[in-house]
UniProtKB/TrEMBL annotation, chain A:
PANTHER family given in the database record: TRYPTOPHAN SYNTHASE, TRYPTOPHAN SYNTHASE-RELATED
Named cofactor requirement(s): pyridoxal 5'-phosphate
Species annotation: Mesorhizobium sangaii
A Pfam family matched in the record: PALP
GO molecular function annotations of the record: tryptophan synthase activity
Keyword set includes Lyase: yes
EC number: 4.2.1.20
Subunit structure: Tetramer of two alpha and two beta chains.
Modification N6-(pyridoxal phosphate)lysine occurs at: 109
UniProt keyword annotations, A-Z: Amino-acid biosynthesis, Aromatic amino acid biosynthesis, Lyase, Pyridoxal phosphate, Tryptophan biosynthesis
Enzyme class: lyase
Gene, per the UniProt record: trpB
Entry protein name: Tryptophan synthase beta chain
From TrEMBL, chain B:
Keyword check for Amino-acid biosynthesis: yes
CC per GO annotation: cytosol
HAMAP family tied to this protein: Trp_synth_alpha
Protein name as catalogued: Tryptophan synthase alpha chain
Subunit annotation: Tetramer of two alpha and two beta chains.
Pathway membership, UniProt: Amino-acid biosynthesis; L-tryptophan biosynthesis; L-tryptophan from chorismate: step 5/5
Leader sequence segment: none
Entries under Gene3D superfamilies matching the protein: Aldolase class I
Active-site residues, Swiss-Prot/TrEMBL: 50 (proton acceptor), 61 (proton acceptor)
Lineage, broadest ranks: Bacteria, Pseudomonadati, Pseudomonadota, Alphaproteobacteria, Hyphomicrobiales
Amino acid sequence: MDKPATPNSFRTGPDEQGMFGIFGGRFVAETLMPLILDLERHWNEVKDDPDFKAELTDLSTHYAGRPSKLYFAEGLTKHLREVSAAKGLGGGAKVYFKREDLNHTGSHKINNCLGQILLAKRMGKKRIIAETGAGQHGVASATVAARFGFPCVVYMGATDVARQSPNVFRMKLLGAEVRPVTAGHGTLKDAMNEALRDWVTNVEDTYYLIGTAAGPHPYPELVRDFQSVIGTEARAQILEQEGRLPDTIIACVGGGSNAIGLFHPFLDDKDVRIIGIEAGGRGLDGIEHCASMSAGAPGVLHGNRTYLLQNSDGQIMDGHSISAGLDYPGVGPEHSWLRDSGRVEYVPILDDEALEAFKLTTRVEGIIPALESAHAIAHAVKIVPAMDKDQIVIVNLSGRGDKDVHTVASMLGMEI
Amino acid sequence: MTTRIDRRMAKLKTEGRPALVTYFMGGDPDYDTSLSIMKALPGAGADIIELGMPFSDPMADGPAIQAAGLRALKGGQTLVKTLKMALEFRTGDNETPIVLMGYYNPIYIYGVDRFLKDAIASGIDGLIVVDLPPEMDEELCIPALKAGINFIRLATPTTDDKRLPKVLQNTSGFVYYVSMTGITGSALADTGKVAAAVKRIKGHTDLPVCVGFGVKTAEQARVIGANADGVVVGTAIVNAVANVLGPKGEKTADPAEAVATLVSGLAQGVRSARLAAAE
């Protein structure tokens, strides 16, 4: 594919049709189309409304605990400098973590959920539905539904229900109904299908709180804008703490909401290298991975055109990742566009590499990262030793890993 | 330019009865059985055939059609084979209109130009692509119309008068009115409301209006057909196939015969529809 001409700014999308180049759009059933247009109208009303912004900022501050800290990961930096020295390189960039794990509910998901619940309230909706993979978005959705008094149904693949049982219990405590989805492999893709089926049935009163920067327009845009607080803060914080912009920023990409949230405010800082990390699973040679941009092709699913794992007949494949939150065969459309335009690099990290980074971070930083975030850290572990000591890397620590201890224990052959 | 759909609808109008539009899943449970079902449909009374293109992620379909699609994919069905099935059917029947129904991604991956060329060569008359609303007309609808294939749009209870003209703008062949908000195979909506909706749509277009989603019995076909130009039945037919498959997918009776029996009953329903209207 020819690369599109480099635009003056990478931050102007999507266009009025919801397209980022050839990606994005509104590929939905007619029943949903009027709802999506209504959502777009309300979104356009609130996105520059000072009252809406003030309400969201207040909640973000006092309820979610923003701004999240930008933390100099001294232990990891020291470790990687030792690795660099052992290789005779004598380098090792400074590593910072953007601490989204410290937010209320333990991940970046709350940023989006607070924004969307305020939107649902303004639209007069009476019922919230959501899909979830790892359960982080399900928990965040159940949390804001509890806070604002909405009934909430969360669709979750049956496989994920089994491997993320602590989050299932949290959602139930918060008053949400968790509906296990057995179709397909019982993962995030199947949960999203089922949520769309619910929405198409209950159009009158239901708000679909999508958890990632994907789906039909305007979801990719509005989720990005709610998550961009991550990058906006990180950019200001690094300028304050280091007096300059970072050399490299890294985030994991499943659907890609934490990544687009970190990346977007940096897209026009052309000296900042931006890297998105896909789930390489057990390797890209087979089909047991979720690296849709590294190994997939553009296609249409869940309301948008984007890179997808699919076969030659256009049937969507079930991917694999150790991390339920990255176990999705597609990616948000803006990432697909950023990939093709060359602004962002997307590379895979294997299950084993993520697991090693999980263990390392726990040991040298006293921070248990989510397995999703561990993918981003794993890439930093790879590239930092070859960088100079005066260089700076920011890794988005998108969530805490308490939910993953059962998965990690079983990977390590332990019973807890 | 008239298509087989236009001609068939015109003929039924002179007969004074609505069309029976029958949906089945291409390749369910396997290619040969599915072709035998397709060949049995016109003789049993089907006026228009909707040939389902299986997709791994049918977001607007209920459990019955989801399962049928998975059976077909497991049986090795692809878009190439679905087009071949239509072509084989055409060797024995050059009159019954065939409408391909499904989702966009398999067509997009096949390539729109190549798909339209092969669809015409296979005797396809129309397309229903669930996830292509009018906002995405440039993708397939406009190229299909230029190629001489009808693009049949779904109108739903959420399509209000303001939006209807946009939905109808590039629609041809017929309009498919989805009787309710929801997935395929749910319970039938209030028939009075359906009749009012059909009347509303007819106020905006001269195209025939066919009604689907939820019609399962001859009696329902009769009642819905009283006020519509056609009645679409899908889930009931797909269930007739599923009902003669054992736990391991083995056939316990002839699926084509099971479908033919059901469709004959439905055909009687639509043939008595206008009598119902006159009552």
